[in-house]
Each structure stands twice: as C-alpha cells, then as structure tokens.
Design goal:
Layout (H helix, E strand, L loop, with lengths): L1 H22 L10 E7 L7 H8 L2 H4 L2 E7 L6 H6 L5 E5 L1 H8 L4 E8 L5 E4 L15 E5 L4 H12 L11 E5 L4 H6 L5 E4 L3 H8 L3 E5 H5 L5 E6 H6 L1 H20 L1 H11 L5 H11 L14 H14 L8 H4 L3 H10 L3
Parallel strand pairs: 1-2, 1-3, 6-7, 6-8
Antiparallel strand pairs: 3-10, 4-10, 5-8, 5-9
Helix pairs in contact: 2-11, 2-12, 6-14, 8-13, 11-12, 11-16, 12-13
Family: Belongs to the bacterial solute-binding protein SsuA/TauA family.
InterPro entries: SsuA/THI5 (IPR015168), TAT_signal (IPR006311), TAT_signal_bac_arc (IPR019546)
Protein name: NitT/TauT family transport system substrate-binding protein
Length: about 350
C-alpha cells in the first residue's frame, strides 16, 4: 500500500513539473531534447536571429539541441538537408525554389531577413538619392550571382526603368573584401554591399552609406529557413520548436537594443564594436531587415520571387501556396513573438 501511495505521489509530482515546464515554454523533463543541425550558407550579420536563439539558449528552451554548420555558399545548404547532414537550411529564399523546381520538395517555415539587404556606399559628397543616380557610374559588386550584383541591376530595370549598359553603368565584379577599397581608391564611384561591409565602409574607409536598395524595393523574404517536405511531415513538433525559438529571438532583438551588439560581437569577434553600432539603424529600419516575427507574407514572397526572376537567379517559379507553410511561424508568433 505504501509503495502504491508513493508511486501515485511521484506520478502527481511529475505531472505538476511537466505542466509547469510547459507553461514556461520549457521542454518537458520527460522528453529528451532533439538534436538538429542547421546549415547556414555563410556566416552573415543578417542571420542574427539564429545566432541569438543559439547564444541565448532559446533552442534548448524549446526542446532542441542545435549544431550550426557553415556550408560555404548560398546553394550549399540544399545538398546538406537533402543528404540529411542537416535538417534546417538558412540561406537565400530563392534556393528553396530552385531545389523544388529541380525535383526536391522544400518548404519555407520562417523568415530570417525581411528586406533585400543591399546598400550603396560612396565617398562623402556624392549625391545619390534614387536608383536614377546609378546612371553613368562604375559600381563595385561581388561576383554574379551575388545580390550585390543582381539587386542593383534589378532595381535599375524594375524601378528606374532603364537598361544599365545603355545608360553608361559599368559593373566592376570583385572578390570578397575588395569593393570598399575600389571606392576609396577611385576605381569605382559606388559599391553595393551587404552588412557588415556598409558599416566597415563608414568606420574604416571614411565612406558614407547613401542609399538603401532594400528600403526602395520594400518588404521581402530575402533569407529564410526551410526544410524538406518529408522532414516537415515526419517532425512537426521539432519544426514548431525551431520556429518558437526564432520568434522569441526576433522579439528579444526588437525589445532589447543591447542584444544585437552583444551577440554580434560574440559571433564576429574580428570586427570593431563600432561596426555593430553603425549597423543597428540599418538592420532595424522602417522596412526591418531583422524581422519582428518569422511569418512570411505573400507580399514578401512575391517581392523576392520577382526580384530573383528578373535578376536571372531562379530556374523557375513556384507559388507561395506551395512553397510556404506559415502555420508554425504563426503559432510561434502568437505564443512567443511580436505580432
């Protein structure tokens, strides 16, 4: 009889602990954490929600033990998840479309970057207030198909309504790290860059950030996290936990200004903290690069697909209804994120 009473008390205590853990958003003690591998394209500043979720223990809070691997290129996370070396991809959203067009079934589950994050930098005093100001200039970019090349080309055609070559625009395609120097030494009039390069240009090269192509183009799902459809169907609880952690990380980034600089300094220790201070305003602008939550709207999807199609980086198109499952991000936003 005593053993039965003790067993019942242990059961009740265990249930109480589990209920308390769930109420706090913590994993149940009776359920082991699920190991997952996240394959990021390159280690980039605008993947900051992933880094915050990792460094602040938010994946573990929701029952995931994460490993982050850097694939080394925008297309490389796709083979990583197809071969099951990773479960979650973090890269340019268009890579999910290309993989699906070629026969794989990818599903976008969370937004990582909310605008096409390319800025124009120039020497002080250069007037540059619209896409029209590209006319007649030499533009330093990275090699095609980098967005530093495709985004200004798309903007000139779609927003400016002109052909770059016909208007005397010269594109100077350069290796990583060479764009800012090309502007500083006069080989190029402007450079189109990502962060952290825009802020490095300001803090180390004496350049100015004169125009935001992302702001001009509007909200877009520039980078996303996606999985294979098979993984989604077989592991919905893990996908939900993953989105919960991202929603909480994005909320934290918007509510606590110190978190952005703190985690950026940990992830990019080679950079001067002044770079992160300079970057923050661009990362949290009117069209916020750091999303308020991981949901992907149809407008954001269509903006990205149109951009990539005109830029020539998509092998075909697939509709929002096929390529996005917003249910996990929506639930995560309602319970842990910012509306």
């Amino acid at each position: 009889m005593n053993s039965m009473i003790l067993d019942r008390r242990a059961f009740v205590a265990g249930m109480a602990a589990t209920t308390g853990a769930l109420a706090l958003g913590m994993p149940s003690p009776s359920r082991a954490a699920t190991p997952v591998t996240i394959s990021e394209a390159i280690h980039l500043g605008f993947y900051i929600p992933v880094y915050v979720a990792m460094r602040k223990g938010l994946f573990e809070k929701h029952g995931i033990t994460p490993t982050l691997t850097t694939a080394g290129g925008i297309a490389q996370p796709v083979p990583a998840i197809l071969s099951r070396q990773a479960q979650f991809a973090v890269t340019g959203t268009g890579m999910s479309v290309n993989a699906t067009v070629e026969g794989a079934q990818m599903v976008n589950i969370a937004k990582i970057a909310g605008q096409i994050s390319v800025w124009v930098v120039a020497k002080p005093g250069l007037k540059f207030t619209s896409v029209e100001d590209f006319k007649g200039k030499t533009v330093a970019t990275l090699q095609f198909p980098s967005n530093t090349f495709t985004t200004p080309t798309y903007a000139m055609k779609a927003i400016g309504g002109f052909d770059p070559e016909a208007e005397g625009v010269k594109i100077l395609q350069l290796p990583f790290g060479a764009q800012l120097q090309a502007v500083a030494d006069g080989r190029a009039d402007v450079a189109t860059v990502f962060e952290w390069d825009a802020s490095i240009g300001e803090t180390q090269f004496g350049l100015e950030t004169v125009f935001s192509l992302g702001q001009a183009l509007g909200p877009a799902c520039f980078a996303s996290s996606f999985v294979t459809r098979d993984y989604l169907e077989q592991n919905p609880e893990t996908v939900q936990a993953y989105c919960n952690a991202l929603a909480e990380a994005q909320k934290l980034l918007h509510e606590d200004e110190a978190v952005f600089g703190e985690i950026s300094a940990v992830e990019f220790p080679q950079l001067d903290p002044a770079v992160f201070k300079a970057a923050r305003g661009r990362m949290f602008g009117d069209v916020s690069l750091v999303p308020r939550n991981p949901t992907i709207s149809e407008l954001e999807w269509n903006t990205l697909v149109k951009h990539e199609s005109v830029a020539g980086t998509l092998r075909g198109e697939r509709p929002y209804s096929e390529m996005v499952d917003n249910s996990f991000a929506q639930k995560a936003t309602e319970e842990f994120g910012l509306k």
